């Protein structure tokens, strides 16, 4: 963890673009509540194959113009062309956006060819070729390894390629086992790589939803957490209280060890992230 201790902590939150007018109003309320915590940036997700491109762009611009917090759009290269990526990079530059989360992205059902980009490192390289150092580029990291990786070593190779292509920092997939993060950083250090690797944090509020997401993305829910959550049944208040305790302790462990910040997967809710943030005393910084 020595490489991580040299970086000033960065705290951030992630949203998905709302689908309806009602969702947009709820999003704005959540955004404004979380903006009071003064995170470094708000990131906005990008649907499979660019399916939310317009909504992502609109949400990013609204954050950048109205929230007082830097916006960081996710940019997925699957099903994209060089021309389409070049166009959106130009739009983001014109909006004053200075940070991009560069991802391969999910392949839409039924798609055979991924498009002109196959992997995230190719997207990172293209952004650098087109825009130089204008954008701070975040990439994804997988402490428990990408679910489609053919091996742990191949997954580490893929991460190294993204770094060498020009990534500035990384945000991890969420996890509940701090040792997975520590081992990942250890492996990165052995490869001679040094960049901030910020842990992704998923507040626990709904066990059914969490289990479904975790199965899809390969995040392991430890057995003891699963059993406790199952035992609460439909008691949402108990699930939230237990989740807040577990995630707060995970965050403390990571920060005490030298993690360079935290990135909260908010699910467009303010209260769970705010509670953990305040438990950690980050609102006093």
Give a short summary of the structure.
By secondary structure, the chain is an alpha/beta fold. It has ten helices and eight strands.
| Widest beta sheet: strand line-up | 1-2-3-4-5-6-7-8
| CATH fold description | TIM Barrel
Poorly predicted tracts of residues? none
Alpha-beta content class: alpha/beta
Distance between the termini: 23 Å
| Rg, alpha carbons | 18 Å
CATH C-level label:
Alpha Beta
Give the percentage of residues in beta strands: 15-25%
Characterize the biggest β-sheet: 8 strands, parallel, barrel
Determine the mean pLDDT: 91
Number of DSSP helices? 10
Shape: globular
Question: Any key phrases for this structure?
Answer:
285 residues; alpha/beta; TIM Barrel; 8-stranded parallel barrel; globular
Report on the structure:
The chain is an alpha/beta fold. The chain has one domain: TIM Barrel (Alpha-Beta Barrel), CATH 3.20.20.220. Helices cover 46% and strands 15% of the residues. It contains 10 helices and 8 strands. Strands 1-2-3-4-5-6-7-8 form an 8-stranded parallel β-barrel, surrounded by 4 helices. Helix 4 runs parallel beside helix 5. The chain is globular and about 50 Å long. The model has no long low-confidence stretch (mean pLDDT 91).
Describe how the helices and strands are arranged:
Elements lengths: L9 E6 L5 H15 L5 E4 L8 H14 L3 E7 L5 H13 L4 E5 L16 H12 L4 E6 L10 H14 L3 E6 L3 H13 L6 E5 L5 H11 L5 H9 L4 H22 L3 E5 L5 H9 L6
Parallel strand pairs: 1-2, 1-8, 2-3, 3-4, 4-5, 5-6, 6-7, 7-8
Helix pairs in contact: 3-4, 4-5, 9-10
